[in-house]
Design a protein that fits this description.
- The complex is a heterodimer of chains A (about 80) and B (about 160).
- Chain A is built from three helices and no strands.
- Chain A is mainly α and about 80 residues long.
- In chain A, helix 2 crosses helix 3 (about 45-75).
- The longest helix of chain A has 30 residues, at about 45-75.
- Chain A is flat, with a radius of gyration of 17 Å.
- Chain B has about 160 residues and is an all-alpha fold.
- Chain B has one domain (about 1-145).
- Chain B is built from nine helices and no strands.
- In chain B, helix 1 packs antiparallel against helix 8 (about 115-145) and helix 5 (about 70-80) packs parallel to helix 8.
- The chains are: A mainly alpha (about 80), B mainly alpha (about 160).
- At the A-B interface, helix 1 and helix 2 of A face helix 3, helix 4, helix 8 and helix 9 of B.
């Protein structure tokens, strides 16, 4: 178990395929949690406000990605 | 007598603000716990630790925390404080041939698939930059002389549906 854990943190994992697009989700979730935990004085509101911000960020990032991809295709 | 008390209050306030800032940098969230805001502190602690070490797990410590090859990214990562220092310790503990440039060819050793390393670096750096916001929040809360009215404002905002 320990060598496996050590190898996990020492070497990069294999990131390939369409699954790599999903790696943006945890990062956006972390940003949404920290931002809302700073902004909201009442922490009981977090479960309601964090998903809304998370979805907004994810949709925005994918929209930017698609726009850049379209521009790249047109330029190519 | 009054002047002494005022001076003591000022010293206490400076110590409180400094400790909150330093603890927030050292262990993200610890500054808020120090200020008595335990729930918020634990949320920050878990979120930043998960994001940072998630990044290290994706990109590997040899590529993700690499001040020789990626100085600017490392500066962002260092904002995560203790996490970055621990990861840098792990990086330094690796055999030299796996982390340093080859003196003869001048090439860096292969540390993993480029995309995994890039994603890992972004995770760790974003964790560090989020911790800058957390440190600033801890400093503002430590400087606030009346924490109670802030809660009252929040309750009013909650009732009126703001935010």
């Amino acid at each position: 178990m320990t060598p496996l854990l050590a190898a996990l943190f020492r070497d990069a994992i294999n990131v390939s395929g369409k699954g790599r697009m999903l790696l943006i989700l945890p990062l956006c979730l972390a940003i949404a949690i920290v931002y809302k935990a700073i902004r909201c004085e009442d922490l009981t509101r977090l479960p309601r406000t964090v998903p809304a911000l998370w979805i907004t960020i994810v949709i925005g990032m994918y929209a930017v990605g698609v726009a850049l991809w379209v521009i790249f295709c047109i330029m190519a | 007598m009054v002047a002494n008390r005022s001076s003591d209050d000022r010293t206490e306030s400076v110590v409180r603000i400094s400790m909150a800032g330093f603890l927030s940098w050292l262990v993200p969230g610890l500054g808020h716990i120090y200020l008595g805001d335990k729930k918020r502190g634990i949320i920050f602690l878990v979120t930043i630790a998960t994001t940072f070490w998630g990044g290290v797990a994706i990109g590997g410590v040899r590529g993700t925390v690499n001040p020789q090859q990626r100085k600017a990214w490392f500066m962002a990562e260092v904002c995560a404080g203790g996490h970055a220092l621990a990861a840098y310790g792990l990086h330094k503990a690796q055999p030299e041939g796996l982390t340093k440039r080859d003196p003869q060819t001048g090439e860096w050793p292969y540390v993993g698939h480029w995309l995994a390393v890039e994603i890992g670096i972004v995770y760790a750096a974003v964790a560090g930059l989020l911790n800058v916001l957390i440190i600033l929040d801890a400093l503002v809360r430590a400087d606030s002389p009346h924490p109670q009215p802030v809660r009252e404002v929040a309750a009013v905002e909650s009732r009126s549906g703001k935010r």
